[in-house]
Amino acid sequence: MKDYEVYSSLKVPKNSKIIVRLDGRSFHQLARDLNLIKPYDENFYRVFSQVCNDLFNEFSASFVYAFSDEISLLLDKIPFDGRIEKINSVIASFASSSFVMNYDVQFKKPPAFDSRIIPVNDEDILNYFKWRQDESWRNCVNSHGISYLKSKYSNSQANDKINGMNLSDIHELLFENGINLNDLETYKKRGIAVYRKYKKVTGFNKKKNKNQTSYRSHVYVDWEIPKFSEKFFKEIKVIK
């Protein structure tokens, strides 16, 4: 019967880096079940940041980025000998378990994530995360836009209105009604990141009888990330 496991031998390319992207399954319904505050629920994002932190530590990620109900993990140490089925199933199930453990509520239905693998090289990393951060901004504008319109119209009317608007139209509508998206907390516009932060430390080496410089790192959950750039990723040593 082992021969029937036709997909179990599929592996990611050797010596590659990969991004594993997780998406919450039916999180719109989950938001209704949990009565989340729209457009952004602070407690949900506190929990989501802890899930990102757990993923970072468990799978030795180089970088984790999240917004809305989406998480992207950059891995240069590929787990499970590169087996695609194993990577997708274990990381998605771990994220679901972490979400339940960190969210102190009784769920009506077990939350779940789906998972996909994206092989990347160093040149792709910046482009990928800039692409997802642009999507975070679009999500922010649309979320605030539909939330405002639903405060004025029925759900169906609000949906009809926003479908005919582009991002600049929504931004202008909100600004005209006293909502300046530029004043929002950074994480709502740009997402959350987890990475290692490096600190330069100078100490005295008794054996060599001289001062010596070293670098120490700690896992850092960043709620104030800048717009992604080559400089940012080089500073945190994700790309060379």
Description:
It is a single chain. By secondary structure, the chain is of the alpha+beta class. The protein has a domain at 2-121 and 186-190: tRNA(His) guanylyltransferase (Thg1) (Alpha-Beta Plaits, 2-Layer Sandwich). The chain has helices at residues 27-33, 42-58, 84-102, 122-150, 155-163, 167-176, 186-190, 230-235, and strands at 17-24, 63-67, 70-75, 113-120, 192-205, 210-222. The chain has a six-stranded antiparallel sheet, with helices on both faces. Strand 2 and strand 3 (70-75) form a beta hairpin. Helix 2 crosses helix 3, helix 4 crosses helix 5 (155-163) and helix 4 (122-150) crosses helix 6. The radius of gyration is 21 Å and the shape is globular. The chain starts with 16 loop residues before the first strand and ends in a 5-residue tail after the last helix. The relative contact order is 0.15.
Task: Give a summary of the structure in a few sentences.
The protein has 240 residues and is an alpha+beta fold.
List keywords for this structure.
8 helices; Alpha-Beta Plaits; six-stranded antiparallel sheet; 42% helix; globular
